[in-house]
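LOG
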Amino acid sequence: MPLLINPFSSQPVEAAKGLFFEGLALVMLAGLAVTRLTHGDIQRRQASGFLSKARLRTHLLIERPYFLPALAYLLVCFAATLRATDPWQSFLGNESRRGLLLIASLVIFFLVSAEIVQSVEQAEWLVTAILTGSVAVAIYGFLQYFGLDPLTWSTDSLSPVHSTTGYSLYLGAYLAMGLVYLAAFIRPRLVVYSATTFASSIMRHPGARRTARGRRWC
C-alpha cells in the first residue's frame, strides 16, 4: 500500500491508493465475515445470549469501546454527504479528493483490524509490516533527494522529495508516525512502560475510580 502508485495517471498517488484501499477494505470485511461464519462464532454468541440487552451493552461498551464512536463518525459523514450540493460526487469523490466511499473504507479497515489483531504476536507482525513499508518509502525518498528518481512526477509538492506519498508534507507525517512503531520495535518494554504509566496516571484521577466501568475502561 505505501509503495502503490500509478505513474501513467494525472493523479499518480491519490487515485491509485484510494481505489486499492477501497477494494482492500471490502476484501477484509468479507474475509472476516467468512471466518466468523466458518468457525460458528455467531451461532455460539446467539446461544450464549449475545442479543440480550445486557450482553450487547457489555460487548459494545467494554469489549469493543471503539465501535460506537467509529459508527457515530461514519453516520456524521453520511449525513454530511446527504446535505452536500452534489451528493453523488460527495459519495464517490474524485481523483484528488476522496468521498464517503473512502471514509467508509477507512472505518471498515480500522474495525476489522481491531477485531483481528488480538494477540501480541499479531501486533508484532503488524508493526513489522508497517516498518517494512516505511523503510521502502524512506529509501525512495533518498533516491529523489540525490536525483536518482527514474520517474518524472507531476506534483505541486513544495519539495522534490515526496517519495510515493505525492507531497513532502505527507511524507514527513507518514515517517513521523512510523517513529512510534520503530520505538516499539527497538525497545518494546519502554513503550509498554510509557503506556502503563499513562494509564496509571488516569487511574489516579478521582473520576476514573468512581465506577467499576471507569476502571475497566482504563
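LOG (cont.) second protein
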Amino acid sequence: MGKRVAILTSCVLALVLLTSLGCVRVSMTDEPPRPDAGGSPQPMVITPAAERHDVAITAVDFEPQLAPDGSIVSDKMKLLVAVENKGNRPETNLVVRVGLSSAKDREVLAQSTATVDGLVPGESKILRFETQPGLPLRSGYVLKAELDPVPGEVELSNNLRTYQLQVTMMSK
C-alpha cells in the first residue's frame, strides 16, 4: 500500500508540473463507483493542451516619463517597449522594430531593432531604445513599435503599436 501511495504522489506531482508548464490539461471527475466495476476508481483523463503561439507588444512608454502636460523632461529619453509571451509555448529570437517618421510625409527619421532571446509563457521583458540626438523638428510624428510574428502565431493584431505624436512649441 505504501508503494502505491508513493507512486500516486509522484504521478500527481508530475501532472501538476506538466499542467503548470502548459504541457497538459487534466480533467478529473469524481464519480461514485459503478456496482459492476467492483468499486474500483475511474481512470483519470489527460488531454494535451493545444499549442498556442502568441507574442505581443503590451506597452510603449518613455523613460523618464513625459510631464503631465506632455512636455519632455530630459534631453536623454529612452523609448520603452514591453513584450509578452501570451501563448503557452516558449518563444525565442523575438525581433522588435521601432521607427519614428514624419506625420506629414512619412519620411523615416529614426529606426532601431532589438532581439529578445527568449520568453516563457506569461513572461514579459522591457526593451530600452536610446533616442537619437539631432532629430529634425516636425509638428507631428508617427511612432511605430512592431514585433515580428512567431511561427504559428494565432493573434497578429497585438504585434503592432502605432502612435501619433503632436509637437506644440511652448512659449517661454
